[in-house]
Task: inverse folding
């Protein structure tokens, strides 16, 4: 008998998706457009159709919001709005009319923030899509926290998210790969690709690697890209990355030298 006779027409399973949070500090579409233009530096693939939460918590309650225009400007920069966060219930019908859902406080927050406008470029994670299976373990730390350990290479197009803990990778992180942690990131190998630590807002998180050559790094939502290459004095050598105020610092693991 054909196996297809026993297959279900559809199955619904829980899937963890990392989305971008576009935190609006103004509803002025021109200002948002200018901020995103500066953020992306004119790069057409800076964002890659990332699922996007529009967070309006920072806007005054009386702010008039042109949802159609805001959706249009985000879409123009390849951000894909899917929901609105921190909106009053009175806005629910208007938000729904524009094809967006209204996120409630009970839903888990699993996104990396992109604040607009900001002076420093802040690219977002790659498109939210299921990642290929990667071998990992979660080990407890002495203080009761946990750490996710990845022992296999992280290949282009793969994304690892260590939710609520540190991330340790003992294999290479390739170009086009993305590793995210709510805590710190430790790569005991070569770090290429993107590394985003302190994803839930932990400004004390750091990124460490024995062989540092990332495309992009982020600490607590503050980003730094390396279009012109990683600083030569730290490239391909043990280094750490930390957040000092609103500035991303790069330091040697073995000295106080920084960039």
Result:
């Amino acid at each position: 008998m054909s196996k297809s006779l026993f297959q279900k027409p559809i199955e619904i399973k829980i899937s963890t998706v990392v989305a971008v949070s576009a935190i609006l500090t103004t509803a002025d579409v021109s200002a948002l457009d200018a901020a995103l233009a500066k953020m992306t530096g004119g790069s057409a693939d800076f964002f890659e159709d990332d699922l996007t939460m529009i967070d309006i918590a920072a806007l005054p309650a009386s702010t008039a919001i042109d949802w159609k225009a805001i959706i249009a400007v985000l879409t123009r920069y390849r951000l894909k709005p899917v929901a609105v966060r921190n909106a009053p219930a009175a806005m629910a019908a208007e938000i729904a009319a524009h094809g967006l859902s209204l996120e409630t406080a009970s839903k888990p927050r699993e996104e990396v923030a992109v604040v607009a406008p900001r002076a420093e470029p802040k690219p977002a994670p790659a498109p939210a899509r299921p990642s290929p299976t990667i071998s990992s373990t979660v080990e407890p730390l002495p203080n009761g926290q946990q750490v996710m350990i990845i022992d296999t290479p992280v290949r282009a197009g793969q994304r690892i998210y260590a939710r609520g803990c540190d991330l340790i990778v003992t294999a290479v992180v390739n170009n086009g790969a993305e590793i995210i942690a709510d805590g710190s990131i430790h790569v005991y190998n070569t770090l290429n690709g993107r590394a985003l630590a302190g994803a839930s807002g932990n400004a004390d998180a750091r990124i460490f690697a024995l062989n540092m050559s990332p495309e992009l790094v982020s600490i607590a939502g503050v980003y730094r890209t390396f279009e012109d290459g990683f600083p030569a004095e730290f490239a391909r050598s043990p280094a750490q990355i930390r957040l000092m105020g609103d500035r991303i610092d790069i330091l040697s693991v073995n000295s106080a030298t920084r960039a």
